[in-house]
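Lab channel / #folding
Pinned by the channel admin:
"Please post every new chain as: sequence first, then the structure tokens as a reply. Keep commentary short and put observations after the output so the thread stays searchable."

First post following the new format, from NK:
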Amino acid sequence: MFGAGAMGTALSIHLARKGEQVTLWGSRFDERVLPGLQKDRAHPALTERLPESIQVLGPDDLKEAASATEIAIMAANSNGARSLAFIVAPTLPRVRAVVSIAKGLEPGTVSRISEVYRDELGDRPTVVIGGPALAPEVADGLPAAAVFASTHAPALDASAATFRTNTYLVETTTDVPGVELCGTAKNVAAIGSGILEGLGRARELEYKNARAALFARAVHEMADLVEGSGGHRETAFGLAGMADLLVTSIGGRNRAFGEAVGMGGDPFATLENMTERGLTVEGVESARDVRVLAEKAGLVLPVHDAVYRVVHEGAPPTSILEALG
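Reply from TO:
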């Protein structure tokens, strides 16, 4: 497991619980949490502690961490994916699969993360994970379901078999673009849902009907984006799209950011505050990426565009309500 963030650590716990031999390697970006992982077997974002069977290594032990790797799980977010791959590439042997857990596109290039890993890691087969799997619940062993996507059948089968348990269900698909684009767009829509929640709190209203309408509209816009970008439309109505949007809209950093903005918070100040607390709000940059992809495909996505305008152009939060008309 390359990367000791909350999800990388949670998946390490899950795999160790299943009986897999796991090495959790933390980069210099993980130095804040590494002492706790090594000494107390604990990650600050999780209540479940690491089993003793997990080997925890730091930045200087990369060669040791990579040497016996069969499945390399790249536990970076979309912003750090290329740098992680660049660091790991020289030491990584020929593996059965490279598994990406990132949700989002590479900032600046709008490349999908599987494309980033192909650039940096060559022809090693890549598998991407999508679906509603919150890190604390995965670590606690609560039921979850994910979808694994790859066009390389042996890598897809090996990865799915490695992760699959009675409580962590795994579906498989060859629709890599669809899974990755759903993972990008759902964070944008979750900000929109949070904005409606914040508007309601500020006005002492609930906007339950409006939030339900936004959810339905956002899923269809996600399907349009996937289809317009070369993926399978039906992917948006499964685990990678609709299900992940649901759980992200119920709780999470993107919804929390949207709620603060909906209550009147300045988007830039709110983002800065959350970043200082170590919280990454992927949907902010993803709103820009989705707009670029929509324009390229000739699509009109009212909900996602409204989120972009509120977050990046200073449009009033009520623009989300207008996007439902």
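NK: The chain has two domains: 6-174, 177-322.
TO: also worth noting, The longest strand covers residues 144-149.
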